[in-house]
Design brief:
By secondary structure, the chain is mostly helical. The chain has one domain. The chain contains eight helices and no strands. The relative contact order is 0.09. Keywords: Membrane, Transmembrane, Transmembrane helix.
């Protein structure tokens, strides 16, 4: 294959790999409706695949590759005229880039520096401990809203609104659970200690 074919192949491959990963990641969060344990059990099952060293390296490289491509596209599109919806999608992409860079970095810090299992408690600790919760509630909420808005791009008006309504419901649902809306959540001390200075 020529260089352009290798590029196009990895572009498509990395994109669809990330799509599959995000699908299972969001599906995993739905298990929170049942219990934390069900969520963690499902997570441990899918981790058998994506925590394989070889697959995890490919996944991280795929995220980095897609982030690079997206940043490049955003820079090239920054001065183009856009409709209101196109502007929403444009800024959603910027936010997702910020979120993913921050998220990947935080997970690596959690695993390498703090020696923690970066499971749901890693996320919950930030959402529940004030004043950090004021940032993390917005951080997760807009990540989901932005993701669904990007997915809805180019769809007909019915699908556009349907996808974004579902995104809003899912975002509210997740924050509600994170705030102990369904059941009390006891966060282990090792996760709480991250935010103690």
């Amino acid at each position: 294959m020529t260089d352009s074919k290798y590029y196009n192949f990895f572009n498509k491959f990395s994109f669809y790999l990330i799509v599959v990963f995000i699908f299972f990641h969001l599906l995993n969060h739905l298990f929170l409706m049942i219990s934390i344990n069900e969520h963690i059990n499902f997570m441990e099952t899918i981790r058998l695949v994506y925590r394989n060293v070889f697959i995890e390296i490919i996944l991280i490289l795929s995220f980095l590759f897609q982030l690079f491509i997206t940043i490049k596209k955003l820079w090239n599109e920054r001065q183009l005229k856009k409709t209101i919806i196109e502007k929403f999608v444009f800024f959603s992409k910027i936010y997702i880039v910020y979120f993913l860079i921050n998220h990947i970095f935080a997970i690596l810090i959690g695993r390498i520096i703090f020696k923690l299992d970066t499971n749901i408690y890693f996320a919950l600790s930030g959402v529940q401990i004030k004043p950090f919760s004021y940032y993390f509630i917005i951080y997760y909420f807009f990540a989901i809203i932005s993701l669904f808005l990007i997915v809805s791009k180019g769809k007909n008006i019915f699908l556009f609104y349907l996808i974004n309504i579902l995104g809003f419901i899912f975002a509210c649902f997740l924050i509600y659970i994170f705030q102990e809306g369904f059941y009390p959540i006891k966060i282990p001390d090792e996760y709480i200690n991250i935010y103690k200075f």
